[in-house]
Structure formats: C-alpha cells, structure tokens
Design brief:
The protein is mainly β. 11% of the residues lie in helices and 31% in strands.
Length: 87
C-alpha cells in the first residue's frame, strides 16, 4: 500500500502517475493524485474525469518503465499436434 507521504509528494509535485491494476497495460490508469483516504485514492485523468482507486494498487511515475513482474508473458505459445476433433 502506498504511504501518505508518497501520495502527498506526488500531489504537491503534480506527478503524472501510472496506476497498475493488473498485468494488462491497457488497464492502467494515468493521471495525477487529487485526494486520498485510508482505503482509496482519487486520480484525475487527462480528460478531467476522476477515478476512485484502491490504495493497494501499484502507483508509480508514468515516465518509469512498467515493472516486469506486472507484464504479460512475451513468449509465443506453439499449438500442439493434438486436437479435440481427432476422435
């Protein structure tokens, strides 16, 4: 969980953040911290809409690379020769 001090620093500096919610980069939220409480953080997106997110997500500056632990596997999946229709 992100600390009060870190959230306050992001708010004061108006740091553009990436909020990582799962392994898919398309589900990331990009915006700046507006407010927070014990369980949630309000993020203002570029289109000025506000999103209420849990504090348990990963919050990082947007210019930083996405951590590899939160990336989808990059290896290709090769199909096997067996299929269900072969019976």
């Amino acid at each position: 969980m992100i600390s009060e001090e870190q959230l306050d620093q992001y708010r004061v500096d108006s740091t553009l953040l990436r909020v990582i919610r799962d392994v898919s980069p398309t589900n990331d939220v990009r915006g700046i911290v507006v407010a927070w409480d014990d369980e949630t953080v309000l993020i203002r997106k570029k289109n000025r809409r506000v999103v209420k997110l849990a504090r348990g997500y990963v919050y990082q500056p947007y210019e930083n690379e996405r951590p590899p632990a939160f990336m989808l596997p990059q290896e290709t999946i090769t199909p096997d020769d067996l299929s269900d229709d072969a019976e």
